[in-house]
Write a structure and sequence with these properties.
Blueprint: E1 19-20, E2 26-28, H1 39-60, H2 64-87, H3 93-122, H4 130-153, H5 158-172, H6 179-204, H7 211-230, H8 233-236, H9 240-272, H10 281-301, H11 316-320
Antiparallel strand pairs: 1-2
Helix pairs in contact: 1-2, 1-5, 2-3, 2-6, 2-7, 3-4, 3-9, 6-7, 7-9, 9-10
Length: 326
């Protein structure tokens, strides 16, 4: 089953689009659940199509939300390929991950400007001096948008498409209720368990006064969360509410990181415009108070991490007994 990056529907749904042959003939249409074979093929197909959809959105208009959603889609696809790279060493998953990581990193500076500008614009009524920041950030954003849009438009997904179609085809050959099917499922659970262990290790190293330790924990938690989300609920036993709790926990750390990015941007602006330092002092004081509130909020819920894994519906033996890939 081949999935083309052309003619994808412009929707936020994860329902897959039809794929088309060279002459435009429809090859397949339906939901991922109609696929035969291993559930991983269904999950990979859904995330691949989501990535293609968001890529087309950015090509049409590289808006703030479109850039954010593309970065999220890339992260989710990378997490899927990370697990597959552990269980299918010869599938070029690692090379695909490297390509996707470069794409995500190229969008990082623009995303940081979006965060800073939206924060400043939201406070213009309360702090008129924030208008100066908004104008400067908008100027920087316009200057960066052109090269970013050029890279997005020249993003060649054909190589990724060939690799992922091949992986999906291989996974579809794995019929359910066979030893191979159970082995792949066990590997996936093992990867989730390993990602959670890494998150716990980084959580134990958190120093609230050092935002870098929180950022490292957030990066590890993202990896864990996106792996868990690709696992079927009948395997993990996680409900939609429990999955939302993962999102809320990540968001608390994300709020802290956003404020760190904003603080760095403001500090750099003040360094370059010394004459405005006194005028921006009330805004900077408010920013520090926001950072303090965000840290206190995270501190209250920091140990909720230990409630997330293993979920009550998943016997510990199902993970510990699995033979993880080397």
């Amino acid at each position: 089953m081949k999935v083309s990056c052309l003619d994808l529907p412009r929707t936020n749904s994860l329902a897959p689009a039809a794929s088309f042959g060279p002459l435009g003939r429809r090859r397949w249409k339906g939901s991922p659940q109609t696929l035969k074979g291993h559930w991983f093929a269904q999950a990979l197909l859904a995330r691949w199509q989501r990535y293609l959809q968001q890529l087309e959105e950015c090509r049409h208009e590289a808006s703030t939300e479109a850039i954010h959603q593309l970065r999220v889609a890339i992260r989710r696809l990378i997490s899927q390929l990370f697990v597959l790279g552990a269980v299918l060493p010869g599938s070029k998953c690692q090379r695909a991950c490297r390509i996707l990581k470069r794409q995500r990193q190229s969008l990082g500076p623009l995303r940081d400007l979006h965060i800073q500008r939206r924060f400043a614009e939201g406070l213009e009524a309360r702090f008129p001096e924030a208008v100066i920041l908004s104008v400067e950030l908008s100027r920087q954003e316009r200057a960066l948008l052109k090269p970013v849009s050029r890279r997005i438009n020249h993003n060649k997904s054909s190589k990724l498409e060939r690799w992922i179609n091949r992986i999906i085809s291989d996974l579809e050959q794995t019929i359910t209720e066979t030893p191979e099917h159970e082995q792949l499922t066990g590997f996936a659970l093992c990867c989730a368990d390993s990602a959670f262990s890494e998150t716990v290790q980084r959580r134990r190293l958190i120093v609230l006064s050092d935002s870098r330790t929180i950022h490292r924990t957030r990066a590890a938690f993202k990896k864990f969360r996106y792996i868990v989300e690709c696992l079927p609920p009948d395997i993990t036993g996680l409900s939609k509410r429990q999955l939302r709790n993962l999102s809320y926990y990540q968001r608390r750390m994300g709020n802290i990181q956003d404020l760190v990015v904003i603080q760095k941007g403001v500090s750099e602006f003040v360094r370059q415009h010394k004459a405005l330092e006194l005028w921006l002092r009330p805004f900077c004081a408010y920013l520090r108070r926001r950072q303090g509130r965000a840290l206190r909020s995270f501190e209250k819920s920091i140990d909720k991490l230990f409630q997330f894994w293993p979920p009550p519906g998943l016997p510990v033996a199902s993970v510990s007994d699995a033979q993880c890939p080397a």
